[in-house]
Amino acid sequence: MGRAVTVATCALNQWALDFEGNLERIFRSIDIAKSKGARYRLGPELEICGYGCSDHFYESDTLLHSFQVLEKLLESPATQDIICDVGMPVLHRNVRYNCRVIFLNKKILLIRPKISLANAGNYRELRWFTPWSKARHVEEYFLPRIIQEVTGQETVPFGDAVLATKDTCLGAEICEELWAPNSPHIEMGLDGVEIFTNSSGSHHVLRKAHARVDLVNSATAKNGGIYILANQKGCDGDRLYYDGCAMISMNGETVAQGSQFSLDDVEVLVATLDLEDVRSYRAEISSRNLAASKVNPYPRVKVNFALSCPDDLAVPTCMPIQWRHHSPEEEISLGPACWLWDYLRRSKQAGFLLPLSGGIDSSATACIVYSMCHQVCLAVKNGNADVLADARRIVNDGTYIPEDPREFCKRVLTTCYMASENSSQDTCNRAKLLAEQIGSYHISLNIDAAVKVVVGIFSVVTGRTPQFSVYGGSSRESLALQNVQARIRMVLAYLFAQLTLWARGMPGGLLVLGSANVDESLRGYLTKYDCSSADINPIGGISKTDLKSFIQYCIENFQLTALRSIMSAPPTAELEPLVDGQVAQTDEADMGMTYAELSIYGKLRKIGKAGPYSMFCKLINIWKEIFTPREVASKVKHFFRMYSVNRHKMTTLTPSYHAENYSPDDNRFDLRPFLYNTSWSWQFRCIDKQVN
Fold it and tell me: Which CA distances in Å does 309 have to 110, 336, 608?
């Protein structure tokens, strides 16, 4: 009867400008889709060149190489008898568009440019592309000669159109268009489109996956239809981790779910669905049918091809499933771990070096690396040849098979405890015990000699010797002495990262991991160019509150009992002298605020778009049971003073895994000045007026 259609979507770990690797992964996804009987294959946004090309999109080379990859796809027998929907940039009449190129049997059917561009948060699409603003309008696109020679076509349709096959009608959305208030699928569905496709470049944020799933399901709940979503996965060259979650939905219910986090470079979902289920679902929605009778029709590109087979009565169709969401603790365990693996293998380094202080932040970073080792061993056990090949290259052993996460961790993670006279034996013991339990190669050293030499140089030049405040020194002297210790640790971290493997008779170098959390970065509670300065930071976008929950998760799931004492100890920098052998300095006392308060400030400042006055107005209600308005005012003023005084530190912040929408990352997410008038005189007067 021709009613059961088989469609495929995928999540691909594409890499910006890796045209050869990207082409190979596209081919693999097409092969898998065809082997499972699919007649239509959807890929992620800009999959040919990679989503994260940034200003490389300006280069004609990027356009040229994208068309060269398209040429390979068009002329290959692998793409025959399946509609292929791929993403690439296209220059039309000297305007650059983010496009889907849909082809079948060496013929391009349609080039569909993106209508709504993502331009908030980490996204800057309007910098490189122009949105297609001609609704339901199609123009002629003149193909490059290399494509003409393969297709025999001089021009192809370019614009806002849909495909009409022998058995159904398909319409494309691209990523942001699903999130827009006037999503194209609404009018396309009213115009009889039964299958909606969405190619995405959507990155991971803690607790975001459910929003994407809800949007996809709601797209067809009101209007009926089949919705297919493809997404990028992995680290394609910057701070973002694209978290897959390819999915297929019908009439408001999920029928196929892809993984959110995995080390598989290619993941393909295939579903067989009954078109009559869409038609019968729509038949009884009278409001939809009334609206459909008045809709402005889309241009249709006729395709002499069917997604179904004539004799399909015996073909089984997919049933709805319940989406399984990860907990935030699982997301922290898996997302940054997969990001680290991509960074490690693609940077061609031999492992990581982590300054391990025995505190929550560096311990959480160590646990993420340990989780990465678990994921690698699991992937190899499941037969992932790519992961095995990468692991062998990283450890420089062509016969190696990673089976035990602890053993693999010893090969790829070096931890280093850098003690000073201000360090306690407790933190030293905690760091050593955790290193033993995760299996890392652990080094303990003392930095006092280096600190004395550096301070000694200053004393020789100036004739003055700074003292800690507990010994009668000023706050300036004390802070300078703390910073010297912190910065020497950074210098030693890089020295050991470059030469530790050399000293052990092994090739390669190590990537230095930072471990400043998102709250400390926001407050500026870190020394500029200390151990927060590293190559990458897997926890730089995660709050202290979430990290504590993650540590508890690791205790329970990885049996890392060393973390119990780390959890119970008050966070401390250990940069000031001990008192009776015990730590007297604590982070929250130094900061003048708690980590819980910092998380609230961060969300209000970035997500709530609150300046000092608006933040005060919100907090007098949120905290009305625990603080007076005058106390709230004092807290808000203190936060904004400290934030603005320290904002310059964000300009050198180590590239961090993006996990929170209140990240203070200065690179492209949180764009602010770094030289403020830190008195905030006008703003604070407005607060004082309300307090009085």
Answer: 23, 43, 52
- Final residue of a domain: which of 302, 319, 351? 302
Contacts of 38 (CB under 8 A, 6+ apart): 6, 7, 8, 82, 270
Q: What is the DSSP letter of 80?
A: T
Residues 670 and 530 grouped into a single domain: no
Q: Does residue 199 lie in a domain region?
A: yes
Counted domains in the chain: 3
Give the three-class secondary structure for 276.
helix
Same domain for 291 and 346, yes or no, is: no
pLDDT in tens, 643-684: 999 999 898 889 999 998 888 888 778 888 989 999 999 999
Q: Are residues 551 and 685 in the same domain?
A: no
Contact call for residues 547 and 336 (beta carbons, < 8 A) = no
> What is the residue-averaged pLDDT of the chain?
95
Specify the 3-state DSSP secondary structure of 608. coil
Q: Which of 199, 308, 357, 543 is catalytic?
A: 357
Asked whether residue 155 falls in the same domain as residue 259, the answer is yes
C-alpha torsion sign, points 208, 212, 214, 215: positive
**Known catalytic residue: 357?**
yes
Q: Which of 49, 53, 84, 175 is catalytic?
A: 175
Residue 302 annotated as catalytic = no
Range of the domain at 675: 592-691
573 and 603 assigned to the same domain: no
Whether 72 is a known active-site residue: answer: no
Nearby residues of 408 by Cβ (< 8 Å), 6 or more positions away: 373, 376, 377, 391, 395, 402, 439
**Which is nearest to 75 in space by CA: 11, 143, 148, 20?**
148
pLDDT in tens, 259-275: 999 999 999 999 999 99
Catalytic residue among 10, 29, 34, 45: 45
Q: Are residues 573 and 609 in the same domain?
A: no
Longest dimension (CA), the chain: 95
HSE-up (13 A, CA, CB side) for residue 520: 25
Q: Quick one: 72 and 44 in the same domain?
A: yes
Tokens of 256: 């196929």
Asked if 114 is an active-site residue, the reply is yes
Strands (E) in 192-252, as ranges, are 195-200, 226-234, 242-243, 247-250
Q: How far apart (Å, rounded) are the C-alpha atoms in residues 339 and 345?
A: 10
Q: Give CA–CA dist 185/317, Å, rounded.
A: 24
The verdict on 156 and 219 lying in the same domain is yes
Distance CA 150, CA 427 (A): 66
> How many angstroms separate the CA atoms of 567 and 546, rounded?
12
Q: Residue 309 domain-assigned?
A: no
Residue 216: what pLDDT? 96
Which of these is catalytic: 114, 528, 544, 649?
Answer: 114
Write the CB contacts of 357 (distance below 8 Å, at least 6 apart in sequence). 417, 418, 427, 431, 574
Quick: pLDDT tens for 536-591.
999 999 999 999 999 999 999 999 999 999 999 888 767 778 776 666 677 788 88
pTM, full prediction: 0.94
The last residue of one of the domains, among 520, 552, 579, is: 579
Q: Is residue 584 part of a domain?
A: no
Q: The domain spanning residue 219 has which CATH number?
A: 3.60.110.10
For residue 316, is it within any domain?
Answer: no
Count CB-CB contacts under 10 A for residue 292.
16
